[in-house]
Amino acid sequence: MALTAAQIVDLTTQIAKCPGFTNQALAFLNTVLQELAQDYDFNVIRKSLEFNFSTTAAGNGYAAGSGPNPMPADFLRLHRNGSFYMISQVPYKLIGVTQEEFDSFVQQPGLASYPYLAYVDVTQVSGQEPGLYVWPPAAGAYPATIRYNPQMPEITDTSQVPWFPNTNYLIRRVAGELMGLTNDDRMPAFLGDNEEQTPMGAGVLLRKYLQMKDDPETAAKTVGLDRRHFRAAFTNLPNTKTIGW
Questions:
Q1: By the 8 A CB rule, do 143 and 122 touch?
Q2: In 3D, which of 167, 99, 189 has the Cα closest to residue 135?
């Protein structure tokens, strides 16, 4: 059974031999969870957003229909291969680009068509939410689905179970961080990532978990070309049939 944040805090302060450091342990736990969410894509926290493209929005000086299409306040980044829209029940994938690349695209009126490139402006100005921009501008209010990785909220209620499923890693990592506060010589062994020298180090445990988190033993490995420049041939052809190919 998964441990609550309170149980993890209690265990880590005992292991680190600093039972009074409960606030520090909770702060480290939240920091570690935030680090994991920001550094890696975990399906366990992935979210989906369904909406219709705006055909009139023209933010950042782009052509009407480019966006922004409002994203959730907890948006962190697009999940790879998880963005698409539907026309006549046929999915059309969106390929992620950088804002700098998007700025180089032609923005003349009359370009509205079927978008295939997108980026999300995550600039936070006066509480403004992130916005999705697409190119070419959307010619219709097509229903779209965006799968994204969110910013995870901090744990304030310690009866909650942390979202990260590898509890052993959390215990080892937080205990090791506490040892840094108390100058405990065991800190390198708890935080190490060398499997030969520190087989139970937090870095070793995390690496093993990351290697298996997406079931590599049951999924075929593929090597992909840059989708911005190498796309299936039919995507470059005019959409002349009702079903889209």
A1: no
A2: 99
Distances (CA, A) of 125 to 23, 50, 85, 128, 150: 32, 24, 28, 5, 19
* Each residue's pLDDT tens digit, 50-108: 999 999 999 989 999 999 999 998 999 888 778 999 999 899 999 999 999 999 999 88
Per residue in 137-170, pLDDT tens? Answer: 999 999 999 999 999 999 999 999 999 999 999 9
- b/e for 183-220, b at 16 or more Cβ within 10 A? ebeebebbbbeeeeebeebbbbbbeebeeeeeeeeeee
State the DSSP H helix or E strand holding residue 190, giving kind and residue range, or none if neither. helix 187-191
pTM: 0.81
3-class SS of residue 27 = helix
Give the contacts of 4 (CB within 8 A, at least 6 positions apart): 158, 159, 160, 161
Q: For residue 43, which amino acid is it?
A: N
| Cα→Cα distances 181→91, 110, 142, 154, 187, Å | 52, 61, 54, 21, 10
DSSP 203: H
User: Three-state SS for 20?
Assistant: coil
Q: What is the dihedral of CA 35, 41, 44, 45, to 10 degrees?
A: 60
Q: What is the DSSP letter of 59?
A: G
Question: For residue range 29-52, what is the model confidence (pLDDT) as tens digits?
Answer: 999 999 999 999 898 999 999 999
Cα–Cα distance list, 242 to 88, 100, 245 (Å)? 7, 35, 8
